[in-house]
Design a protein that fits this description.
This protein is an alpha/beta fold and 188 residues long. The chain is built from seven helices and four strands. The chain has one domain: Response regulator (Rossmann fold). The chain has a four-stranded parallel beta sheet, with helices on both faces. Helix 5 runs parallel beside helix 7.
Length: 188
Amino acid sequence: MSRPRTAVWKDPPVHHDPAPHLLFLCTGNAVRSVMAGAMLQAHPAPGGAELFVTTAGTHVIEHQPMGIRTRDALRAVGLDPPVHRSRQLTESDVRAAHLVVAMAAEHVSYVRRRHPEGADRTATVRYLVGRLRAGPEPLEQRVAQLHLAGVDPAGQGDVVDPAGGDDEDYLACARDLVALMGALVPLL
């Protein structure tokens, strides 16, 4: 029996198996990272590979539930919203992740300032979709080939934050992330 893919919405347990650990990162861990994590969980990984997925934020009010607009946007793109409580990014999160998938340049910059040991494993999802190559090599090796610590975050491309916007802004964000996750999954 295969192990279920790890839930996006829980505090990450200690991760010891060889499955790649992807950490999705946004500001409040309330919209973009939550949507991206839920979407990745919904896509089958290439060749049936298992992925370990967690989410966090750079400036979080801890343990807040997902907002109604985020839930509605996920439903509108055909996903059941996960049970979620917001979490602040920690040093152990960065240390454990094979890849930190940021939603915006500001999140890449935050990791470089606060958790420099993760700089070589952190980039925006838009940058990764355009640069990460699929292949038989382990994800860690293919990420290392990108030399991410030397890439200017400002040129990596952001996923627009719908916070403060209306329902259409949240839906637009969800649709954008559906396309990005669809492009990212085959590269993992």
